[in-house]
Amino acid sequence: xxxxxxxxxxxxxxxxxxxxxxxxxxxxxxxxxxxxxxxxxxxxxxxxxxxxxxxxxxxxxxxxxxxxxxxxxxxxxxx
Length: 79
Hints:
Helices cover about 25% and strands about 30% of the residues. By secondary structure, the chain is of the alpha+beta class. The model has no long low-confidence stretch (mean pLDDT about 85).
């Protein structure tokens, strides 16, 4: 899973805003300031359509979003 994540760019410091990569949990949490889930087929990026992402923004008073903590896992259509 770690190699797969790294090959997709799911690493610390990567750029995952909506303009750069399309709809994804990390960019959505950053933009909205709310926890979110993006299910496999909801991702704009084709490479992420086999995964589901959960993301929570890290907010600072009067400073907005400092970053995002995210968890991605593979989605298996057989489940």
